[in-house]
Amino acid sequence: MNPARRREIILGKLQAQMRYCWEHSPFYRALWSDAGVFPESLRSLDDLVRFPYVKKDTIRADQAEHPPFGSNVCCPPEAIAHLHGTSGTTGQPTAFAISRDDWLRIAAAHARIMWSFGLRPGDTVFIGSFFSLYLGSWGALIGAEALGARAFPFGAGVPGQTERALEYLDLIRPAGFYGTPSYALHLAKVAQAHGVDPRGFGFRTMFFSGEPGAGIPATKRRIEETFGASCVDTGSMAEMTPWMTNAECSHRQGMHLWEDIVFTEIIDPDSGSPIKDEGEGVPVYTHLERTSQPMIRLWSGDLTSVTDDPCPCGRTYRRLPDGIYGRVDDMLIVRGVNVYPNVVENALAQIPGVGPEYRIVVERPGELDVLTVEIECLDTSIASTVGDRVKHATGVSPLVTVHPPNTLETTEFKSRRVDDRRPASRA
Ligand SMILES: [Zn+2]
To answer: Full-prediction pTM beyond 0.85?
Structure first.
């Protein structure tokens, strides 16, 4: 669609959404009244910047004050069909209450987007991730069902399950795979240990969320070469489900922003202004179709860059050509240099013989920060090459510790690869 015409449609949807929120959400009435804005304040999409951000802390505080779901449920209790929530082991959880109608809309949106990256009715989609509070698996499941594909909700995390997956994959031969990049690489390692070539699974399209790996060029290439399949990066945030509204198409040139489902501003963190054509910023998300717990201007805290260069697929949605490559809060400052963990991963993944597991440890034994990169490799003499590549990529000279293969703790879900051991008083 012509982007200008699409913006008109988005404006109409957004105005209706804001009126709905004002009528049904004590949360937004309070937030917007305090900021002196009202649904009528939105006359064009440019007016959206006048509305305050919603931050994760604000949602948690609101849920603590109005348990269990907060003051932004917006639908009657009997309309709620699914309860989900944050699955982290620390901090106060955030509960998600999703209505029956929204569940169907999420399925429809995901089906539409899964088509764009190459899945088709009749394909079998192997879902190799937890079925629990984690919304990723459920979004992939209902999207596959709505598309007319066959969902294979295999799950993950049970001892011995990956070995069992090898048998099922051989038996069923699914065209599609969903999981985290860490889990796909773990699956490949287990397969290879059993003398099975992961290319033999016959996956055609592998799509990922939950971690940035599928958008990191060298990790993407590693997955594509290991499995002989397309590696597709998707995903925004659990709060924003349908989370696939950031998703690569089958050309895999960065995630498109499906802005008529979730309107996505890329905000320059210094000026607070949206980036119109190209540049780096923080995605700020607004639900246009959710009527239960709608998010209006949810601040993601992620870092990305956006472009409106045309995509060979013909879609006119803007793209994030380098994926979501960091978080404003996760960036490490080591000896005054900004270090993004994903940049380190991309450097490591380009060195032949270096395994996919790694750790980044930052310490301050004396006056200065010390960055240590721990990797797995048979050849310990690779340390100097690794040190040079990481220095070249980040500007910081690391210490390198080489461990034998399969000795670093492996991850079946989201990796925790950064260990910052410096005193908490750091800036
Ligand atoms: Zn495209």
So the answer is: no
* SS3 of residue 373 by DSSP: strand
How many distinct structural domains can be found in the chain?
1
318 CA from centroid of ligand 1 (Å): 9
> From the CA of 55, how far away is ligand 1's center (Å)?
30
DSSP bridge partners of 361: 372, 419
- Ligand 1 centre from 271 Cα, in Å? 29
Residue range 340-353: mean pLDDT, rounded:
89
pLDDT band at 425 (very low <50, low <70, confident <90, very high): very low
113 Cα to the center of ligand 1, angstroms = 11
Whether 81 is covered by a domain: the verdict is no
| Predicted local confidence at residue 75, as pLDDT | 96
User: What mean pLDDT is reported for the chain?
Assistant: 93
As given in the structure block, the two tokens for residue 214 are 């599928």
Beta strands in 26-111 (DSSP E): 80-85, 95-99
- For residue 135 the two structure tokens come to 């919304």
Q: How far, in Å, is the centroid of ligand 1 from the Cα of 252?
A: 7
- Cα separation, 238 vs 377, in Å, equals 35
The vertex-250 CA angle with 247 and 255, nearest 5°, equals: 25
Mean pLDDT, residues 327-355 taken together: 85
Inside any domain, residue 1: no
The single-letter code of the amino acid at 376 is E
In a domain, 94, yes or no: no
What phi and psi values does residue 272 have, to the nearest 5 degrees?
A: 80, 5
Report the CATH number at residue 343. 3.30.300.30
Give me the phi and psi of 83, to 5 degrees please.
-110, 130
Residue listed under structure tokens 């780096």: 280
pLDDT-derived band at 356, boundaries 50, 70, 90: confident
